[in-house]
């Protein structure tokens, strides 16, 4: 009896506890399911348009350049896919959009055969380093892709191709980011990926981040292992298993060479990058997590020691430049939780003393940081790894700070043994073998450098990638060309205002907050005028945006960890509005993407979430706590945790508010914070609450999405409640496996829901009972946020890798259950304004301008249809179309058919019709009727 009870208890626990990594077989099956759903989707014909912007870019992780034609290369973006150019980056063409993922760790190309290898899953191990699905291969320049294995590696560090045998390939795999697994280390194939052998495995927490071979001898290779463990609340990027290995038989076997060689060993060894000049000469870039030795009171990087900081008065700290204070926080490892603006808030009059603040920071980080970490250091061997020697005597301050795990790339000029390049926050070079360095970061080059190609045949020619895109230099970094030519921004958030030609606002990873008109062109015309339609309004990592609906010049936005401002875009003024705790109270915890919300009931009222919910009744000038801690209380670690992630207030009642936290708590107040109820006990526990949404159609209804990404659990957790969260219904079971970031109700049809996942967008017409893929012209990219502009009826999609997309959903909003049951439904046809340039070409070398009217309709099965257009009772044109089950669009060019023209003239003898330059006769001003069978709709040529 006891065993039966235990079994039942375990089953019950399993229903509520998630946190198990998703099996790679499940992921593969889900990708196949999604592919099938795309073919049958009811909305497969609704096309998305990318609306940019391109003035900023996204994170580059690798590039592969043709050494015999350097204007031809591929560039891989972390979560934006693979692009090809044969004109030196003047244009970039996406070539991975038909693959199952856009997440990239490394790329390699065999230029003789044109074969492309893509290691999916970013290798930087950041909070938004998305997992991959193994190794993808294309033999037709990206037209088609084949998954050739290693699906459970998740993150790929490096790919090497034998220049003399394109079927012989080496893979360095880091493995899972948030959980241990066995499919990591070094893998080798000699048959082009048909079979793989694991030739180096250390343990389930240690993978291989870098592999490099001697340019003159593929048999001689060096590899860097990396022991790392990331949790939602902590990142440990070093360990005894981080080391350097060597192979002399083309990667078939490996020998650890770091021990007793002069290269660092032990628990403080972090990420290692390699650059091989020849068989014996190798540079290694090490992210040392060992502490610096105390050398008096001053530390060169910031001219301030911890001992001195403790002795400062609050006024003296407040007087420090933000840049100085941020540098100090970075060096001591606090960057992941605290920035200058927030620290200064804690030290304002009535707040903490500097010594009290440091004690709190030490307690929060679970480590007493007496000295900063060593950070970046360069070692060199000239005897094949038998001995290593550090190349410099000084610290390389400002290159890594405390987050070297995000970088780790070093390159050597194959024309010059002493010419090396180090990538970090900035990019530096040395021409004396690493003894001294100079910066080659320039004013038009973004920070946080991830990838570099050094021309092996021409010194000084560099192609470089960073968090802000792609750059090329021909003078060794003295000057750079910036190549932001395609929308690959990593958006966290999107919002819109209510202007007639409405604006779109969004926050991006490491690229600030921007806004611009929704219909802005994303071409290069702005480079002629010098005025890009999108404008920057905030730096750092751009976060959430709220716009006052009474005056769209008043905008609330900010950067990471709750560093928010109220902006007046008309005057250019800004005010810092982050809440600060009461005197002697414990500082608040703020999420990386701190949630804010303007009350729909009163636009002077602003909510902001730390670990508590704060309310301002005067636009952020003053704050009050309206809750206790609404999380599980946080955890020891170097990443802020136990924080609120989402806020939603019911449009039916002021003060009926839901919050969600990063540790799985959903809370409800019905009285403006007077009392709170936890409503998530019946949901899977401890997961990140990515959204909670109070319904606009029913007061008792609420939606919630949970995200298991930080446990490598990619199950789509989507729930609905019709009783204020007392009971929940799982409505995500039919969505292919992918972590969920956002759910959105339609603005008019209560049965329509939209869901954004880490692998695309879905729509439901029955409140989540069934789901359709929503993906025409929208690749398999992470969707982080959604917003509907209610007047224009446009859906804006914020992707984390391909910027913003837009589509109109007016017709979809009319797809009720009654419509879906009918054989044919014809939706509203938009009017069109007549233009004298219809059928006219601007020059002899351009095609004529032709008008288009979109005729939207729904068919309940695949069928051939005839669409007739009438001017009163005269049929003036007919269109034959192949309708498919679901939503369809037919394009009418607003012209008469030959017979239609004759019939129209016979009835309208006084009509004056003129042949256009392309020999077409276009409809005159007037009202027209479109018919499909018994269905009809009208439109007007104005």
Textual characterization of the structure:
The chain is mainly beta and 942 residues long. The N and C termini lie far apart (81 Å).
Beta-strand residue fraction: 35-45%
Query: From the helix content, strand content and strand pairing, which structural class follows?
Result: mainly beta
Biggest sheet strand line-up: 1-58-57-56
**What's the mean pLDDT score?**
92
C-alpha Rg (nearest Å):
30 Å
Helical content (DSSP H or I, runs of 4+): under 10%
The total strand number stands at: 65
Biggest β-sheet, characterized?
4 strands, antiparallel
Shape: globular
Low-confidence stretches: 1-15, 297-302, 365-369
Count of helical stretches: 10
Q: Terminal Cα separation, in Å?
A: 81 Å
Distinctive features:
10% helix, 65 strands, four-stranded antiparallel β-sheet, 942 residues, mainly beta
What topology does this entry show?
Layout: H1 2-16, H2 24-40, E1 49-52, E2 60-65, E3 73-77, E4 81-85, E5 93-94, E6 104-110, E7 115-121, E8 131-138, E9 146-147, E10 156-162, E11 165-173, E12 185-189, E13 197-200, E14 206-214, E15 217-227, E16 229-231, E17 234-236, E18 243-247, E19 255-256, E20 269-276, E21 282-291, H3 306-311, H4 314-319, H5 322-331, H6 340-346, H7 354-365, E22 373-381, E23 389-390, E24 409-413, E25 416-423, E26 427-430, E27 438-439, E28 449-454, E29 462-466, E30 469-473, E31 481-482, E32 491-496, E33 503-508, E34 512-517, H8 525-529, E35 535-538, E36 545-547, E37 554-559, E38 563-568, E39 573-576, E40 596-598, E41 606-609, E42 613-616, E43 624-625, E44 644-649, E45 657-661, E46 666-669, E47 677-678, E48 688-694, E49 702-707, E50 717-721, E51 729-730, E52 740-745, E53 753-757, E54 760-764, E55 772-773, E56 783-789, E57 794-799, E58 804-808, H9 817-821, E59 824-826, E60 853-859, E61 863-871, E62 874-883, E63 886-892, H10 898-907, E64 926-932, E65 935-941
Antiparallel strand pairs: 1-58, 2-3, 3-4, 4-5, 6-7, 7-8, 8-9, 10-11, 11-12, 12-13, 14-15, 15-18, 16-17, 18-19, 20-21, 21-22, 22-23, 24-25, 25-26, 26-27, 28-29, 29-30, 30-31, 32-33, 33-34, 34-35, 36-37, 37-38, 38-39, 40-41, 41-42, 42-43, 44-45, 45-46, 46-47, 48-49, 49-50, 50-51, 52-53, 53-54, ...
């Amino acid at each position: 009896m006891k065993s039966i009870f235990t079994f039942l208890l375990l089953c019950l626990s399993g229903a509520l506890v998630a946190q198990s990594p998703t099996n790679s077989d499940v992921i593969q099956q889900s990708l196949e399911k999604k592919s099938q759903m795309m073919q049958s989707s009811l909305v497969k014909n609704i096309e998305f348009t990318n609306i940019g912007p391109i003035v900023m870019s996204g994170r580059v992780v690798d590039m592969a350049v043709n050494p015999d034609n350097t204007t031809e290369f591929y560039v891989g973006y972390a979560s934006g896919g693979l692009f090809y150019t044969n004109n030196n980056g003047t244009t970039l063409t996406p070539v991975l959009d038909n693959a199952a993922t856009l997440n990239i760790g490394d790329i390699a190309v065999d230029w003789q055969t044109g074969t492309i290898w893509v290691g999916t899953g970013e290798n930087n191990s950041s909070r938004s380093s998305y997992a991959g699905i193994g190794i993808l291969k294309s033999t037709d320049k990206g037209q088609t892709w084949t998954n050739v294995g290693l699906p459970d590696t998740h993150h790929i560090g490096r790919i090497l191709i034998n220049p003399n045998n394109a079927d012989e390939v080496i893979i360095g795999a880091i493995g899972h980011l948030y959980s241990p697994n066995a499919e990591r280390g070094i893998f080798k194939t000699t048959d082009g990926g048909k079979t793989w052998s694991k030739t180096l495995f250390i343990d389930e927490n240690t993978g291989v981040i870098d592999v490099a071979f001697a340019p003159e001898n593929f048999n001689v290779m060096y590899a860097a292992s990396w022991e790392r463990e990331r949790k939602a609340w902590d990142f440990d990027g070093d360990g005894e298993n981080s080391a350097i290995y060597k192979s002399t038989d083309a990667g078939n076997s490996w020998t650890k060479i770091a021990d007793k060689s002069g290269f660092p060993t032990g628990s403080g060894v972090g990420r290692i990058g390699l650059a091989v000049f020849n068989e014996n000469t190798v540079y290694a870039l090490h992210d040392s997590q060992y502490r610096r030795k105390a050398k008096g009171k001053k530390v060169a990087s910031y001219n301030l020691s911890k001992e001195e900081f403790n002795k400062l008065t609050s006024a003296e700290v407040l007087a420090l430049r933000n840049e100085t204070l941020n540098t100090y926080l970075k060096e001591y490892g606090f960057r992941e939780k605290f920035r200058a603006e927030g620290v200064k808030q804690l030290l304002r009059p009535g707040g903490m003393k500097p010594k009290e603040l440091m004690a709190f920071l030490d307690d929060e980080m679970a480590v007493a940081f007496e000295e900063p970490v060593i950070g970046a250091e360069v070692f060199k061997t000239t005897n094949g790894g038998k001995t290593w020697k550090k190349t410099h005597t000084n610290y390389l301050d400002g290159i890594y700070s405390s987050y070297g795990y995000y970088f780790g790339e070093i390159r050597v000029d194959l024309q010059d043994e002493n010419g090396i390049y180090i990538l970090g926050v900035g990019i530096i070079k040395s021409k004396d073998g690493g003894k001294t360095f100079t910066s080659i970061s320039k004013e038009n080059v973004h920070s946080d450098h991830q990838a570099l190609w050094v021309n092996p045949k021409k010194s000084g020619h560099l192609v470089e990638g960073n968090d802000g895109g792609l750059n090329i230099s021909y003078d060794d970094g003295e000057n750079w060309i910036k190549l932001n030519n395609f929308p690959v921004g990593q958006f966290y958030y999107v919002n819109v205002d209510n202007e007639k030609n409405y604006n779109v606002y969004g926050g991006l990873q490491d690229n600030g907050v921007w806004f611009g008109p929704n219909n802005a062109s994303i071409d290069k015309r702005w480079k002629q005028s010098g005025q890009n339609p999108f404008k920057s309004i905030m730096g750092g990592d751009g976060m959430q945006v709220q716009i006052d609906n009474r005056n769209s010049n008043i905008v609330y936005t900010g950067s990471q960890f709750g560093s928010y401002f109220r902006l007046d875009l008309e005057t250019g003024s800004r005010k810092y509005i982050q809440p600060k705790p009461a005197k002697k109270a414990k500082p608040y915890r703020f999420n990386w993407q701190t949630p804010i919300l303007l009350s729909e009931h009163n636009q002077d009222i602003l909510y902001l979430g730390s670990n508590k919910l704060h309310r301002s009744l005067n636009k952020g000038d003053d704050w009050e706590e309206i809750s206790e801690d609404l999380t599980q209380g946080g955890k020891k670690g170097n990443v802020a945790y136990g924080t609120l992630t989402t806020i939603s207030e019911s449009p039916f009642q002021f003060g009926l508010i839901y919050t969600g936290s990063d540790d799985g708590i959903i809370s409800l107040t019905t009285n403006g914070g007077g009392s709170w109820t936890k409503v998530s006990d019946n949901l899977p526990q401890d997961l990140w609450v990515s959204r909670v949404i109070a319904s606009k159609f029913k007061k008792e209804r609420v939606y919630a999405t949970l995200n298991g990404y930080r446990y490598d659990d990619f199950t789509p957790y989507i729930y609905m409640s019709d009783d204020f969260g007392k009971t929940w219904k799982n409505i995500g079971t039919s969505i292919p496996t992918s972590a969920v970031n956002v759910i959105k109700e339609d603005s008019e049809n209560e049965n329509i829901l939209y869901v954004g996942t880490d692998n695309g967008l879905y729509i439901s017409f029955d409140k989540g009972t069934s789901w359709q893929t929503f993906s025409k012209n929208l690749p398999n990219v992470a969707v982080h946020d959604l917003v509907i502009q209610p007047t224009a009826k446009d859906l804006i999609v914020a992707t984390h890798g391909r910027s913003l997309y837009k589509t109109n959903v007016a017709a979809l909003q009319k797809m009720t259950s009654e419509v879906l049951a009918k054989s044919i439904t014809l939706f509203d046809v938009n009017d069109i304004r007549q233009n004298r340039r219809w059928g006219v070409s601007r020059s002899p070398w351009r095609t004529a301008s032709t008008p288009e009217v979109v005729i939207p309709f729904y068919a309940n099965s695949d069928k051939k249809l005839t669409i007739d257009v009438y001017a009163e009772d005269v049929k003036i044109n007919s269109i034959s179309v192949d309708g498919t089950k679901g939503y369809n669009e037919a394009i009418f060019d607003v012209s008469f058919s030959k017979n239609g023209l004759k019939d129209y003239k016979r009835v309208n003898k006084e009509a004056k019709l003129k042949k256009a330059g392309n020999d077409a006769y276009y409809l005159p001003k007037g009202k027209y009727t479109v018919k499909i069978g018994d269905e009809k709709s009208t439109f007007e040529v104005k």
